[in-house]
Amino acid sequence: MRYLMSLFAPRPLHRCFALLDHNGHCQAFRQCSLQPMGDGWVEIEEVRLNWLNQPLPASARVAQQQQQPRLRARQLLAT
Fold it and tell me: Residue 5: is its pLDDT beyond 90?
């Protein structure tokens, strides 16, 4: 029964990240739900192994979402 229930349970969404060195070359990839700790990790659209040890294309990066609207909503709820 647990197996059947697990089929319908929501699963965490995994995001793709690339570790860049000081020259902007891709050193590693990681898929996880939260951004990895440490400097150099950037969120990317997808993992492509041919990017390893190469400069990461600008089009590969995910556009950073604005945090401001979320902060305003929290402030409104707090008052």
Answer: no
